[in-house]
Amino acid sequence: MPFCRRKCLYCDFYSQTDLSLTDSYVKAVVRNIRAANITADTVYFGGGTPSLLSGAQIYDILSAADISADAEISAECNPDSATLQLMRDFRAAGINRLSIGIQSFNDDELKMMGRLHNSRQAAEAIQNAQKAGFENISADLMLGLPYQTEETVRDNIRKLAELNVTHISAYMLKIEENTPLAGCPELVSAAADDDKSADIYLMAVDMLAENGFGQYEISNFAKAGYECRHNLKYWRCEEYFGTGPSAHSCMNGKRFYVPRDIAGYISSPRQQEIISDESPCTEEEKMMLALRLSEGCDISGCKSKENIIKAAKPMEHHGLLKINGDRIILTPEGFLLSNEIICRLTDEL
């Protein structure tokens, strides 16, 4: 859902602030889902800010697809728009999982990031969701922010544990080009460097585990049974369909995306789909994605298994991964160096 009331300083996702387009946009989404003849067991409303849509609009979109009775249906929400009535409307429309963009409970950090909510609204958003009947609630946290300390991260995790969320996505700040944050030298210089980022990340991993949130992916932690089924499809190289400007898909042996053009999307009978990969989900890509997961990568079917294990042994000695039979599993320390480790291992394929 490519709509935001205002762009955050760090965000480079495609979005528009002209909310008058939401009705015509929803009609285009419905049109494209019907044309694609989608059958789904997970649905994810990402953004932008899906909580700027009404419950009726969410219902119309969900009604366009053939969705299984036990489907996981997620929607991202921003605290400033997550009113109790909207949460009830989303629940009635069919949403059964929420991902709330908390980011921090520190008002100074929230203001610095350009977020529209404050710490009180962050807590109220989770409480509103619970009052509306949601149990499966995820919260986003950002790590390594300018001027952030380990203690403020501890406070954020402690607060989320007290609020009884079931899933936490904890992302390291990445300063993207052409964002307002990248154009602010003072904030860029105050962001955590590699060493401080590593310390904050490893502390967060440990504290989340102490509070019952098991790590199942580099940046994702969940209580038992609350791992995000939809996102696991990406990391396990399963098929998925996306619709809307900048949406990506991997279906029928192709990977494709929709141009970042909301006017073109709304006016076209069907979305334009540009093929970005004619042969996705190669052995190399499957290994790369699997190594993001705490379950690791099964190399039993790899012809070069012995070479992969040989390359992995020195990294196991340094505590960056574990070799468990035919499975290679990165440790939290290894996740911090995942790009380099993945390159070394995939070079052996």
Total DSSP E strands: 13
Helix content: 25-40%
Write the H/E string, N to C. HEHEHEHHEHEHHEEHEEHEHEHEEHH
Number of domains: 2
CATH superfamily of the largest domain: tm_1862 like domain
Classification by helices and strands: alpha/beta
* Shape call: globular
Radius of gyration: 21 Å
> Number of helical runs?
14
User: Widest sheet: strand order?
Assistant: 1-2-3-4-5-7-6
What is the terminal-to-terminal distance?
38 Å
Poorly predicted tracts of residues:
none
CATH topology of the largest domain: pyruvate-formate lyase- activating enzyme
- Return the average pLDDT rounded to an integer: 96
CATH class category label of the largest domain: Alpha Beta
Largest sheet, in brief, is: 7 strands, mixed
* Name of the CATH architecture of the largest domain: Alpha-Beta Horseshoe
The amount of beta strand, in percent, is 15-25%
